[in-house]
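Subject: design request, 290 residues
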């Protein structure tokens, strides 16, 4: 019996659900192209979770800098995305939402000529844009809440094709004190990985405790801060730490922009055109991407 469900929503978007994977696809194009896109998305989504689950033990192990035994295309997307963060001990599963979104985007793009495609899965979004079409992404207040604050516009000429959000309460059990870190990067898998690293940096000092990690956690066994210790000084220190990591990743060309949010405080890093939050920056090192 098939466990996947597929629903065409009232606004024409396609929603696909299979276990922990809950995906929404929005495609702009001719009716025939959109129909082909929906068909391709359903076909690829049907086998996606099984492929990931088959290699979950490897995906939850810290990424190595050498070759990998991972076989699935989604799994290898995760590994490639977290490889620059091997020194931090990040596991490939940290990028699973972004990689899964990219898998569906690739299937759709190969099946139909579309003007714009948006694939959202959990805290990650993968984008396809053609000239004349832009995408406006709302910023979530936290990794597990639907409320939004501000937005960012992604244009065809930008180097951004992926958005990733991590923070307390997300699907991978990110440690740290921030409500949410939203990262804009070249791909959705890279954005997911970078967001996980920045969110994890926001845990300086104070009491900690080990908590049970979600099944998909990239941080199994990592101590996380106890909420009782979240005073203003500690939150400021957490924001400073996370901002420092985000700026370092920006300078290395590993993200195009990031927005950090904690209890009403918002900080922006990088070149993403965040509406109402500062001006774009330039990388400090040559080779950084806008």
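Subject: RE: design request

Done. Sequence follows.
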């Amino acid at each position: 019996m098939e466990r996947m469900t597929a629903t065409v929503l009232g606004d024409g978007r396609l929603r696909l659900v299979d276990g922990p994977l809950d995906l929404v696809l929005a495609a702009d194009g001719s009716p025939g192209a959109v129909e082909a896109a929906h068909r391709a998305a359903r076909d690829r989504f049907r086998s996606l979770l099984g492929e990931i689950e088959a290699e979950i033990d490897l995906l939850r192990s810290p990424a190595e800098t050498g070759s990998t035994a991972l076989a699935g295309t989604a799994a290898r997307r995760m590994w490639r995305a977290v490889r620059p963060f091997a020194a931090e001990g990040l596991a490939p599963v940290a990028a699973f939402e972004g990689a899964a979104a990219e898998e569906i985007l690739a299937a759709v793009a190969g099946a139909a000529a579309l003007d714009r495609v948006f694939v959202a899965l959990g805290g990650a979004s993968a984008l396809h844009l053609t000239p004349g079409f832009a995408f406006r992404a709302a910023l979530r207040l936290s990794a597990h809440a639907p409320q939004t604050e501000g937005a960012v516009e992604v244009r065809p000429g930008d180097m951004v094709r992926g958005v990733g959000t991590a923070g307390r309460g997300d699907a991978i059990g990110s440690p740290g004190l921030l409500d949410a870190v939203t990262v804009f990067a070249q791909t959705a898998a890279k954005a997911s990985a970078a967001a996980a690293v920045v969110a994890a940096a926001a845990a300086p000092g104070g009491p900690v405790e080990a908590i049970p990690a979600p099944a998909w956690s990239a941080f199994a066994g990592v101590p996380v801060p106890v909420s009782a210790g979240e005073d203003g000084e500690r939150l400021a220190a957490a924001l400073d730490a996370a901002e420092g990591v985000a700026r370092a990743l920006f300078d290395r060309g590993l993200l195009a922009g990031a927005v950090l949010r904690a209890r009403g405080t918002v900080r922006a890093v990088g070149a993403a055109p965040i509406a109402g939050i500062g001006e774009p920056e330039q990388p400090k090192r040559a080779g950084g991407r806008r």
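Residues 52 and 58 are 10 Å apart (CA to CA).
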